[in-house]
Design brief:
- By secondary structure, this protein is mainly alpha-helical.
- It has one domain (about 5-250).
- About 80% of the residues lie in helices and about 0% in strands.
- The protein is built from eight helices and no strands.
Length: about 250
Amino acid sequence: MTPMTTSWIVFACVFAGALLGMLLRRILPRHHLSEDSKDIVKLGMGLIATMAALVLALLIASAESSHDTQSKGVTEMAADFILLDRTLTRYGPETKEMRSLIPVTVAAILDQTWMGDAYRSENLDRALGAGAEPFYQKMRHLEPRDDFQRAVYAQALQIGMELGQKRSLLLEETGGSIPAPFLVMLVFWLALIFASFGLFAPTNSTVIAILFACALSVAGAIFLILELDRPFQGLLQISNTPLRDALMYLDK
């Protein structure tokens, strides 16, 4: 389910809660709406609002942490590609053919991974895997002639392993970090809070418009959180600038 669809569902649930509260105001006996009842409802809704705020903060922190982690992973991957190219350059001219595979792999990642809403985690795996296999085959055919080349060879292998680890981490983290039960419970609490608003609010167009705007704002906040949790898609996707900069350097 896309963040836009989810946010509209959230809006519908929250605003329906406010309308349900207005309906209950009309059908409940008057003594149910006394000042004592209002005080108890305010206390209960205050408790629910506090829990909702805590869960909302938790969801924001989780989505932001996931977004920052994957953004850092992409930046580190771009730096590793440049470092690998420099390392192979130090090894000698016999690595020229291997070095030509690096910009091809980076270009494949850019083309297959950043495709708007068409992003799929297997695209990243396919792009890196296609370049890794021939690269390692050529690495196995290298024969270091002295201690310097052996050290450079070991460093290049280490960088290649780190790239593989970063690929695995990115693939594991693309599933999203927001647990669905937390989101469902948060929407339920928000609907209850809006129901309490409607229960004691006068029924007129101004109040309905304000509740509509508030419900829309809540849905918008949920939308932004879910967008933040999709680092390779949507409005808040991770920038591919580090990899593009790396590709420009590698093409020189």
